[in-house]
Design the sequence.
């Protein structure tokens, strides 16, 4: 069979690599892909942007693609699945209406409240009704969120009322474009954050391996929020008891709520959760796709055929479908361009990739492109180096061995990915 992966980041490199490992797959196309996907066996890039839905559909028809898997959120929120299904092409992901769980934070907060799913207290504002006095009356710190898609950067934690008001006014004034036309101001929750990803078809659901992301740019969870600077799997915090509670209090009522609202869910569903001291799994956000960088370590541990899993979901036969996992831990370290998550450099030559390829582990490409014989930086999060080990510490050592083999001008990365798991 032939598979199309939509997107060009580290998540899509991991998806393409994993799909290509299936004996059932003849070839994997990635649109637009990156320098890493172009170098994988049985994989080639297609020069179509992830948001060019009509061009992607025409390519899928012309190449007789058997299955399309959508990586990033933008095409899902724009309705790529609806368009493919209307043309009788199999496309793995939620409908446009179901993808509002990620496309609108205000929609999601209202959804969580209506369906009594635990989350932080909040208020929603536009420029027309913004209430500065409300902000100044709230306990610090405060979280200010742009309602729409902002590439994982539309969340700002504010330690003073002045910065919260200034951040809110900047968002409402266009600092995140249309994504900030509406904002959510939210209670700051304390606890430990985990990523809980499932595969779902309406009420049928299978949980994937647990993982934990590191959103802040700098060591010790300091600095600005990013799309994610590293992740590991499994997350020791998620005990069997907590796993059951997350399924019972978050995943199952979310899928039931979507069904009641007339928007049954199909695809990967990612719940970003803050686990409170009493074990309450509060929803911080939903993503309607695999996370990045969580995908990379999770797929390194997945021993089952990803294609078979997606097809079981599409066929409605998830119940009883078993997934096999490598018992070892996996840990991924994101190597980012200088300046990220703000304005960042592009075009810096990357050295050491061949040396890293000879080491244990795997380097997934995110923001890279090939210029002649040279691979250069082309995005904010450039690479994700993933190690495997009998413990998180062992996986961490393997991942950083890969990191230390690779260089470019002003590369930045955290030195402490996995520290919470090691403390556990």
Sequence:
């Amino acid at each position: 069979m032939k598979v199309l992966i939509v997107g060009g980041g580290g998540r899509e490199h991991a998806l393409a690599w994993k799909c290509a490992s299936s004996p059932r797959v003849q070839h994997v196309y990635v649109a637009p892909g990156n320098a890493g996907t172009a170098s994988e066996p049985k994989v080639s890039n297609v020069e179509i942007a992830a948001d060019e839905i009509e061009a992607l559909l025409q390519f899928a028809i012309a190449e007789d693609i058997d299955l399309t898997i959508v990586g990033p959120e933008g095409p899902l929120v724009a309705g790529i699945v609806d368009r493919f299904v209307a043309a009788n092409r199999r496309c793995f992901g939620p409908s446009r209406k179901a993808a509002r769980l990620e496309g609108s934070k205000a929609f999601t907060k209202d959804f969580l409240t209506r369906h009594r799913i635990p989350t932080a207290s909040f208020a929603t504002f536009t420029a027309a009704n913004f209430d500065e006095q409300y902000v100044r009356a709230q306990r610090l710190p405060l979280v200010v969120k742009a309602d729409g898609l902002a590439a994982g950067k539309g969340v700002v934690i504010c330690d003073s009322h002045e910065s919260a008001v200034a951040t809110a006014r900047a968002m409402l004034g266009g600092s995140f474009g249309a994504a900030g036309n509406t904002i959510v101001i939210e209670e700051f929750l304390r606890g430990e954050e985990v990523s809980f990803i499932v595969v779902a078809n309406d009420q049928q659901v299978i949980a994937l391996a647990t993982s934990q992301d590191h959103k802040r740019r700098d060591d010790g969870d300091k600095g600005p929020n990013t799309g994610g600077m590293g992740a590991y799997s499994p997350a020791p915090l998620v005990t069997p008891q907590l796993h059951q509670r997350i399924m019972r209090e978050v995943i199952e009522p979310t899928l039931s709520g979507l069904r009641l609202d007339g928007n049954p869910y199909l695809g990967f569903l990612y719940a970003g959760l803050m686990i409170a001291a009493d074990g309450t799994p509060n929803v911080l956000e939903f993503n309607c796709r695999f996370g990045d960088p969580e995908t990379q370590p999770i797929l390194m541990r997945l021993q089952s055929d990803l294609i078979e899993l997606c097809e079981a979901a599409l066929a409605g036969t998830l119940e009883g479908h078993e997934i096999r996992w490598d018992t070892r831990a996996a840990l991924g370290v994101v190597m980012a361009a200088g300046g990220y998550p703000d304005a960042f450099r592009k075009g810096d030559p990357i050295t050491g990739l061949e040396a890293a390829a000879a080491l244990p582990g795997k380097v997934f490409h995110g923001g890279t492109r090939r210029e002649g014989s040279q691979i250069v930086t082309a995005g904010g999060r450039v690479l994700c180096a993933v190690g495997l080990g009998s413990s998180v510490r062992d996986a961490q050592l393997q991942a950083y061995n890969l990191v230390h083999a690779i260089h470019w001008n002003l590369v930045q990365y955290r030195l402490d990915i996995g520290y919470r798991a090691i403390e556990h």
